[in-house]
Specification:
By secondary structure, the protein is α/β, with parallel strands linked by helices. It is built from 18 helices and 11 strands. The strands form 3 sheets. It has a 5-stranded parallel β-sheet with strand order 2-1-7-8-9. It has a 4-stranded parallel β-sheet with strand order 4-3-5-6. Helix 1 (4-20) packs parallel to helix 13 (214-229).
Length: 357
C-alpha cells in the first residue's frame, strides 16, 4: 500500500501512537483526506493503534443544498446557459439534475475553470451563468475575473462556503463527539491556520493542519494523539511545506474584494451564520442572484434529500456511508440518490470505489 521507502516510517509513526495508549476519535473535513485514508487502508492501520477517523462536511459539492441545484436547473430551463464543474451536473434533486435539464434541451455545459465560462459568454449573446462551488480553496479563482471587464451577459451564482463557521456548528450541535480535528491543508494554504485557533480555546480541541499523502495523515494523527497525551489543545501545522501562518495574502485579498459573508443553509445543517460567500454590491451586474432574480423566484420547492438518503448525517459525522440503508444497493455511482455518491470527494463515492468485494 505504501511506497517501500515509506513503509518503515509509517510503522514507526503507528508504533509511537500505540505506545501512548490513548484511544481517540478524530474528524477531518476534506474529501481528499478521505480518499487518502480509504485508498491506502489507513482506517485499519490506525484502528489497530486505537484511532478512529470520521469524515465531516468537507465535500463542497455535497454541502451544496438541493435548493441551490434547483436554482441552477430553473435558470437552465428558462433559457440561461449554465456552466459548472462536472460533479455538479449529476447531483440529484426532486426535480432532476442539471444533466436531466440538458437532456430536455437546456444549454448546460461542463467547464474546468471560471475562465472557460467567461470565454463562452463572450462568444454568445444569451445570458450565461457560472455556478461557483468550493471552499476558500477555489473562491479566489472565481474572484479573479471580477477584476477585469466582463461580458455583460456573464454572471456568477455563488455557492462558495467557508470552513470555520460549519466547524463551530458541528461542535455546538453536539451530535458528534471527537477528540481532535485534522484540518484541510488546501484551505489553510489560503487562510493560514490562525482562523482555527479559537476552536482550541473554546472547545479544548487539538487541531493539526495536514497534507494529503498517507504519511501526512499518519503524522497528523500522531501529533493529535501527542497533544492529548500531553493534555494540550493547540493548532499545529503538519503541512509546513505549503501552509504558512497567514496563508496566502493575495488570495485572501481577492476574496475580500469580491465577496461578503452571508448566512446560508448547508446540506444536513440548519442555516449557518456568515458561512457562505455572496458577491458584493459593486459586482451586482454579474451576480446571478440579482440579474436573474425574476427567474429564481419561480424555483419550485424541492426535498433536501431523496427518501432514505442519509447524506446529511454523513456530512455531520454521525454516520458512516456504509451504514446508510441505500448504500451500494439503491444508491451507486451509476444511479446516485445523493451528492455524497456523486462527487469524487464524497464519502459514499469513495467508500463504494474502494469497497472490499
Amino acid at each position: 500500500m505504501f511506497k517501500y521507502r515509506d513503509e518503515g516510517t509509517a510503522k514507526r509513526i503507528l508504533a509511537a501512537i500505540e505506545d501512548m495508549g490513548i484511544e481517540s476519535k478524530f474528524m477531518h473535513v476534506c474529501g481528499t483526506h478521505q480518499d487518502t485514508i480509504v485508498r491506502f487502508g489507513l482506517e485499519e492501520m490506525l484502528g489497530d493503534a486505537g484511532i478512529t477517523i470520521q469524515q465531516g462536511p468537507g465535500c463542497p459539492v455535497c454541502v451544496t443544498t438541493s435548493k441551490e441545484i434547483a436554482d441552477a436547473i430553473t435558470l437552465a430551463d428558462n433559457g440561461v446557459t449554465i456552466t459548472a464543474f462536472g460533479d455538479m451536473m449529476r447531483v440529484p434533486t426532486s426535480i432532476g439534475s442539471l444533466f436531466d435539464a440538458k437532456s430536455r434541451g437546456a444549454d448546460v455545459r461542463i467547464v474546468y475553470s471560471v475562465e472557460d465560462a467567461v470565454k463562452m459568454a463572450a462568444e454568445q449573446s444569451k445570458p450565461l451563468v457560472f455556478v461557483a462551488v468550493g471552499f476558500e480553496t477555489t473562491a479566489p479563482s472565481t474572484a479573479v475575473p471580477l477584476r477585469k471587464e466582463l461580458p455583460a451577459n456573464f454572471s456568477i451564482y455563488s455557492c462558495h462556503r467557508v470552513c470555520p463557521p460549519v466547524l463551530k456548528t458541528v461542535f455546538d450541535m453536539g451530535e458528534t463527539k471527537v477528540n481532535g480535528l485534522i484540518m484541510p491543508g488546501h484551505v489553510a494554504v489560503i487562510t493560514g491556520y490562525e482562523c482555527f485557533r479559537p476552536f482550541s480555546v473554546m472547545y479544548d480541541m487539538p487541531q493539526v493542519v495536514a497534507g494529503f499523502e498517507p504519511l501526512d495523515i499518519l503524522m497528523s494523527c500522531y501529533m493529535l494523539t501527542k497533544q492529548r497525551f500531553e493534555e494540550r489543545a493547540e493548532v499545529e501545522n503538519e503541512y509546513t511545506r505549503l501552509v504558512k501562518p497567514d496563508g496566502n495574502p493575495v488570495a485572501r485579498q481577492l476574496m475580500d474584494e469580491a465577496f461578503e459573508l452571508v448566512d446560508r443553509a448547508w446540506r444536513g445543517f440548519p442555516t449557518i451564520p456568515k458561512s457562505a460567500l455572496a458577491l458584493k454590491e459593486e459586482h451586482a451586474a454579474h451576480d446571478a442572484c440579482r440579474v436573474h432574480a425574476d427567474i429564481l423566484a419561480t424555483t419550485p420547492d424541492v426535498e433536501e434529500e431523496a427518501k432514505g438518503c442519509r447524506c446529511g448525517e454523513v456530512l455531520r459525522g454521525i454516520m458512516k456511508s456504509e451504514d446508510c440503508p441505500l448504500f451500494g444497493t439503491a444508491c451507486r455511482p451509476a444511479d446516485p440518490k445523493g451528492p455524497c455518491m456523486v462527487s469524487d470527494e464524497g464519502s459514499c463515492n469513495i467508500a463504494y470505489k474502494f469497497r472490499k468485494v
